[in-house]
Design a protein that fits this description.
This protein has helices spanning about 10-35, 35-45, 50-80, 85-100, 110-135, 135-140, 145-170, 180-195, 210-225, 230-260, 265-295, 295-315, 320-330, 335-370, 375-405, 405-425, 440. It is mainly α.
Amino acid sequence: MKNPYRKNPLKNKSKIFIWTLFDFANTSYSIIVVTFVFAVYFKEVIAGSKPVGDLYWSIGISTSMIITAFISPILGAIADYSAGKKRFLLFFTLLCILSTSLLYFTGSGMILIALTLFILANIGFEAGLVFYDAFLPEITVPKNYGRVSGYGFAMGYLGSLASLALAFPFIQRNLVKETFPVSALFFLIFAAPIFIYLKDNRQKRTEKKSYVKIGFDRVSFTLKHLKHHRNLALFLLSFFFYIEGVNTVIFFAGNYAKSTLHFSMQSLIVFFLIVQSTAIFGSVIFGIISDSVGQKKTIVISLLIWIATMIFAFFTSGANDYLNLSFAKIFGFKATDMQRYSFYLVGLLAGGVMGATQSTSRSLMSKLTPQDRKTEFFGFYSLFGKSSAVLGPIVFGLVSYLTGEQKYSILAITIFFIIGISILQFVKEPPPEKAGSEEALE
């Protein structure tokens, strides 16, 4: 395939940098609202630290994911037809930013209002990713999908570190609610360049047709013919299961550390600093590896690490668990300290593959996606990714509620990684020269 950027590599690099800035921007929402501060604030303040808080939180996550899952393919098809990726991205970005800033006004007992705002913010965040991801094939060539996708996730985790640095002084002064509008402002400032400088490559259509009808027609056509695209269907099914585990870890890591391991806010910050730091290196390194050995092999490696990490987390969740007591005796630590250090190690391992699994999946999807219908197919990618995130949080929240212990929820979500890696074995990865072709789908 001819490299369309060879004549002007500097322009291409600037496009890639501007594209990655959006990853830098939107992870301020992800880390402050979804993973850390608001997730803990919701459980402890809004839900009053009751076990049912996990169930409420999972309902909020699942509801937002169901809505996003079903609208994404329709919106993707419309965006492909109208060359409107950037307009849709702008709408959902603003929806996320506005809803996030309004979380400042939530407080004790305001479960319905808090969940409604969170659902709107999460729809904005997740639906926006459909259009953001679809820009990847427009800013680089197939042989570089892995590393460029990795650069995006690495920038995202840099954004997480920057967001945590901004939030830390507020958290120290117990001004937790103030971190929500700060996160929204961070998102707004660093997301702006993609809307100013990056353009859609497709030509606009002149026919006057209902965009909604076009969206439904194209999605209906794709669904009917998806069974003929066996390779793509198998990858999406595998992705559905293993990303289930990744999303659930992201959604519940903060609550788990606070509720089960009794982390202080300072210990939580240390934990997330470890996760975000290792995720930066993991995203870049695994991105380069995936372009060398292939995206499929790289995903398999990351999933094996995930499985080992979850099993280790289960066996070290209690201060008096055998592994913690053994490690404490060997290294001369208190059992409670060893419990905390063990979870720091879990964060190091999970962070190393968190961005790698997501970025490599995105680059493999780019290889399997037809060039003229990329946003529509990324809509289906979102459909499988978001709909999977409905089941995982519900399973985690329900197991936690029924058993009264979150450690058993870890074993439940580990099963999703195992199923995903098993199905992935049947996916055929196309070579770079056949990326984006109809043959890659079969």
